[in-house]
Amino acid sequence: MIAKEFETFILQHLDSYLIPADNLAIFIDTHKADHVMLLLVNNGYSRVPVITKDKIYKGTISISDILNYQGKHQLTDWEMTQTDIGEIVNTKIESLLQTASLTVIMHKLVEFPFLPVVDDQQQFMGIITRKSILKAVNSLLHDFTDDYTIIKR
């Protein structure tokens, strides 16, 4: 369990740790696999969130997801031009509600470099990155005593 004071300190800045959907590269689930692969390669993204046209989070997509799908289904490059990424989307990175506790966020970030954040209607809000939480922990370690006094029991 995270000490209440630590959690309060970090969560008070959580809005600044969330990278809003408007500031991210995002794919729609009806985009074709070949186009997505081209964009991933050209922009250097390793994994990108996938949403519906209604902004509902579906999963993520990477070059390896696309190539694995193509190999598993023995599809030609032309057939990939007809394949929506909604069929390929990787669902291993679960979304979390924007009201998630710091404990949940920290546990999930151990496994993944970023976590998709959704609202109560599953609408994609943005991501919390491992980097942003590490910055928060760094701030905690350096600035906590500006607001709190630590007394050893």
Descriptive keywords:
7 helices, four-stranded mixed sheet
Summarize the structure.
The protein has 153 residues and is α/β, with parallel strands linked by helices.
Please provide a written account of the structure.
Strands 1-7-6-5 form a four-stranded mixed β-sheet. Strands 2-3-4 form a three-stranded mixed β-sheet. Strand 2, helix 3 and strand 3 form a beta-alpha-beta unit. The mean pLDDT is about 90. About 40% of the residues lie in helices and about 20% in strands. The protein has about 150 residues and is an alpha/beta fold. The protein starts with a helix and ends in a 6-residue tail after the last helix.
* Contiguous runs where pLDDT drops below 50 for at least 5 residues: none
- Mean pLDDT over the residues: 90
Beta strand %: 15-25%
How many individual helices? Answer: 7
Structural class: alpha/beta
Fraction of residues in helices? 40-55%
Cα distance spanning the termini: 18 Å
Strand order of the largest sheet: 1-7-6-5
Provide the succession of SSEs.
HHEEHEEHHEHEEH
Rg over CA atoms? 19 Å
Shape, please?
elongated
> Based on DSSP secondary structure assignment, what is the total number of beta strands?
7
